[in-house]
């Protein structure tokens, strides 16, 4: 069989009976290979002067690429160690992802050409290998395990993502143990300063005062709960579906002598018995709720507020309101199972339809890109200890996910919105200041 025709600049086959892997990948990848690519058969593709390179180390990696074309196959090969990156650290693959961001989809050639290509590399490479152990089952199979966003399934999804290792999170997130977007008061602020500023911004938007009661849903390791208690004298309850988070957070509360004001519970927000809160914060939870559940979610929070109480919702959003919400295959199977995103307009309209009065919203998109860059640096700086704690495959998942998310925020594929609402009383009075007090 003769070699296939190549595009201008495309690597040619290594022989008349076999198409090189470099030529195959370059042909299939949308727009061609933007990095220097080498493969175990000795072939290559992409610019020779690229500062960042990819190396496909073995046949299993090729099978991953061919049986799950696109970001999932690339992720599987990378997590398994079959696709290796040079010129950047595995804890911070941002340079490679930034270069690949427009090239992760496969462009399938006409069927006859595709069949010839596959025969060249061997039809046996169309047998998918078992995925890396970090991968969850696909969404369609999870549907057989329970109703999506039921309490049981939500708990399993949270466990998959957050119960990795508290020590691992300490190394990646830093002393604040805050796994949500920071807010940088200046470009020179440190990550810790930006996380403190974020919590204080939320507190000021909520108008927290000593003696008030705060409910923080999806509280993580309790950063907002402790900040409200320590800095504002607020009696704060936090709830999380991660038992490891609750244990860590409650221990930190005891060590800081905040037991009289702060409490973290291993509990679903739907099971909180108390009501009549002065304020509710939801920082990074809405992504796990499911779009169709927004009305029930915001109704539950509204009903736990007293009249004139304020709600601050802080979550990742899409740049438009047209998406069906589903995440890509890599994010869904490795990072946020069942996670869904939509635009801020969908969130605001749902809140308004339920009688919550939206008073302010802002987009912190650039701040999340800066936050993720900080986390990637932490993972890189603490790589050996992180690998010892969770294994190299899991550490690679986190590097890939965080660097990829950083790119997503930079190119306005995803955003981060804070939406502030108040619960008016029966007469429509909101007891809200004429001008925002948190901007001074």
TrEMBL record:
Residue ranges annotated for the Polyketide synthase-like methyltransferase domain, each copy included: 168-421
SMART domains: PKS_MT
Domain of life: Bacteria
Keywords in alphabetical order: Lipid metabolism, Methyltransferase, S-adenosyl-L-methionine, Transferase
An annotated Gene Ontology molecular function: methyltransferase activity
Gene Ontology biological process: lipid biosynthetic process; methylation
InterPro entries: CFA/CMAS, CMAS, MeTfrase_dom, SAM-dependent_MTases_sf
Keyword Coiled coil annotated: no
Family note: Belongs to the CFA/CMAS family.
PANTHER family, sorted: CYCLOPROPANE-FATTY-ACYL-PHOSPHOLIPID SYNTHASE
Protein name: Cyclopropane-fatty-acyl-phospholipid synthase
Natural source organism: Marmoricola endophyticus
Lineage: Bacteria, Bacillati, Actinomycetota, Actinomycetes, Propionibacteriales
